[in-house]
Amino acid sequence: MSFLKFLRWLFAGFCALIALVPMAVAAVCLANPHRPQFYLVDILTLPAFSLCAVMTVVFLGLRQRVATALCVAALAAFAVALGPQILPHQPPARADARPIRVVFGNLYIYNRHPGTFLAFVNAQHPDLIITVENATLSRKQIMWPLEAMGYGGRCDFGETKIYSRFPLTHCRHIPFDVVQADTATPQGPLAIVAVHLAEPIPFPGEAHHRQFDKLESELAGPDHRTTLMAGDFNSDFSAWRLQHLAGRLGLHPLPAWSGSWPTELPSFFRIPIDNAMAGDAWHLSHRAVSSDFGSDHRAIAFDLTPAQ
Questions:
Q1: What phi and psi values does residue 131 have, to the nearest 5 degrees?
Q2: From CA 272, how far away is CA 121, in angstroms rounded?
Q3: Which structural domain, as residue segments, surrounds residue 13?
Q4: Within 13 Å of residue 34, how many CA atoms lie on the same side as its CB?
Q5: Alpha-carbon gap, residue 304 to 207, rounded angstroms
Q6: Are 267 and 173 contained in the same domain?
Q7: Which of 47, 53, 124, 175 is surrounded by the fewest CB atoms within 10 Å?
Q8: Cβ atoms within 10 Å, residue 46
Q9: 66 lies in the same domain as 191
Q10: Are 258 and 82 in contact, with CB atoms under 8 Å apart?
Q11: What is the pTM of this model?
């Protein structure tokens, strides 16, 4: 074997070893193990898929067949793991029904100009707005302007607020950043749950898991066909926690093909931790993601349409 062939063989082996990394990560994401150390990996399924796609193109350009094949296999595993997030099962929408447009945004507690969020609101023309991390500045820059724009229904506890064009009733609070309210829309009754859960770090994220358990226990029991739950879950539907919560409550997720956090990264490298789920009376669609408005999160908008 010539020295040049040896170097090529060595380089091919090195590329194959690198390609084994996304294979291992994809195996964890596909298995969805209920362990804290793997849960953090599972949340990163979408950016891991995107990075693996870049690696596949690079190895293809370098003509590394083994490494390319390993990355393609990893992409297939990532795609299956992303299924509950990008192609969730939900009832079809009624063709004759007008959708309710909803906007959710994490305003970021240290945002010096939270009012720039209103540009996204004006572009989306929502009927319902949910915000978390509302600091003192948001009262002047967001709350008062929204009231002037016709969002007369308001329900808030702490840093979590719900604004609505429809009257809100039965406002109540679960003892962390979760606010509930009911409203009667022209499309039917709607039970709103606005959520902001703790981060799953520092490891093992005990506060995060306790809040999920508390949320499940507080909401377990009643019929959730008319429920809309939206917020910053600090998790996504590729991970078992949100899948389990949705399954327990009989909710289905909003399809999310791109992420919302952190705001600085390209869309497919962000994590869709800002999300929504709804009961079988509703169909979720037409998700849109905002531009940067000074928060570490991008805001999202989506349609809530009566289901068949």
A1: -135, 150
A2: 19
A3: 3-81
A4: 6
A5: 31
A6: yes
A7: 175
A8: 27
A9: no
A10: no
A11: 0.94
Residue after which a domain boundary falls, among 53, 81, 109 = 81
Angle between helices 240-249 and 36-43 (to 10 degrees): 90
153: Cβ contacts below 8 Å, ≥ 6 apart: 162, 163, 164, 165, 166, 167, 168, 181, 183
Residue 4's identity, in one-letter code, is: L
DSSP string, 156-204: EETTEEEEESS-EEEEEEETTTEEEEEEEETTEEEEEEEEEPPPS-STT
Number of domains in the chain: 2
Q: Is residue 86 part of a domain?
A: no
Please indicate, yes or no, whether residues 291 and 165 belong to a single structural domain of this protein: yes
Query: For strand 100-106 and strand 274-278, is the pairing parallel, antiparallel, or unpaired?
Result: unpaired
Q: What is the CATH number of the domain that holds 171?
A: 3.60.10.10
Residue indicated by tokens 């009376």 = 281
Q: Which two tokens stand for residue 48?
A: 């891991």
Beta bridge partners of 179: 173, 194
* Average pLDDT by stretches of 10, the chain with 308 residues: 84 95 94 82 94 97 96 96 94 96 96 95 98 90 93 92 96 90 96 95 83 91 91 95 93 96 96 97 98 97 97
Question: For residue 89, which amino acid is it?
Answer: H
In whole angstroms, give the CA distance from residue 32 to residue 84: 12
Q: At how many degrees (to 10) do helices 240-249 and 206-219 cross?
A: 10
Task: Tell whether 87 is covered by a domain.
Answer: no
Q: Name residues whose C-beta falls within 8 Å of residue 27's C-beta, 6 or more positions apart in sequence.
A: 77
Is 26 domain-assigned? yes
In a domain, 180, yes or no: yes
